[in-house]
Amino acid sequence: MDMQNILDLRLEKLIHLAKNYRLGVMIDCFNVFNANTITSWGTRYDYDWLLSSDPDYTPSTEGHDLLGIINPRQIRLGIRLIF
């Protein structure tokens, strides 16, 4: 398969609450550029029994099926207490 170009970012701000306590506020962004990277593909013989009677039938380009693709862009917010 081709190389995967995926960018994940994390930004965090620490706030001092007391002498021994800190509060962290963070934001994570996964797959920043929303790349449609293929994670797995393969060939399934006679998987589609409705069209298997046609010997020239292939379910996708060059006989390969797309089995997995990376998740779309996701954003996660979080906090943590450090003591």
Structure description:
The protein is mostly beta strands and 83 residues long. It has one domain. The protein contains no helices and five strands. It has a three-stranded antiparallel beta sheet with strand order 1-2-5, with no helix packed on it. The mean pLDDT is 80.
Class of secondary structure makeup: mainly beta
**Overall average pLDDT:** 80
Helix/strand order, N-terminal first:
EEEEE
**Rg:** 23 Å
Summarize the main sheet: 3 strands, antiparallel
Q: Give the number of domains.
A: 1
Strand order of the largest sheet: 1-2-5
The general outline is rod-shaped
Brief summary of the model shown:
This protein has 83 residues and is mainly β.
Set down the secondary structure blueprint.
Blueprint: E1 9-16, E2 22-30, E3 38-42, E4 65-69, E5 74-82
Antiparallel strand pairs: 1-2, 2-5, 3-4
